[in-house]
Amino acid sequence: MQNRRTLLTALAAFALVPSLGFAFEVQPYESAKAQAAIDAGKPVVLQVYADWCPSCRAQSAALDKLKSSGAYDDIAFFRVDFDAQSDVVAKLKCPRSTIIAYKDGKEVKRQSFGLTDAEVKDVLNAAK
After folding, report:
1. pLDDT averaged over consecutive 10-residue blocks of the chain (128 residues)?
2. Which domains does the chain have, with CATH numbers?
């Protein structure tokens, strides 16, 4: 009986966690979802990423550091797979390791091969 109470208490506490807010989540790019967010005027950031790309991993590390700040939780993040979504990459006219910010339905900033926390933050701030 004590174990059941402990489990129920833990589950109740866990249920409260979403109300505290989670850091942003980078979603796989889906054209319809991303375009709907852009068209709605929401702040949107696209990251063109390749698993094998060291600079892409450096950008992702910078994004991971910024996740916990809470400053960017209102931005919709989408990751474009450089290898699997070459049609999207061609349409965006960019190389891998590119971060693109949209605000009010328009592209407002683009950074290719920006690896530092400050460079990544600069793009994210443009979307806010």
Report:
1. 45 38 78 95 95 94 86 93 96 96 96 91 94
2. 22-127 (3.40.30.10)
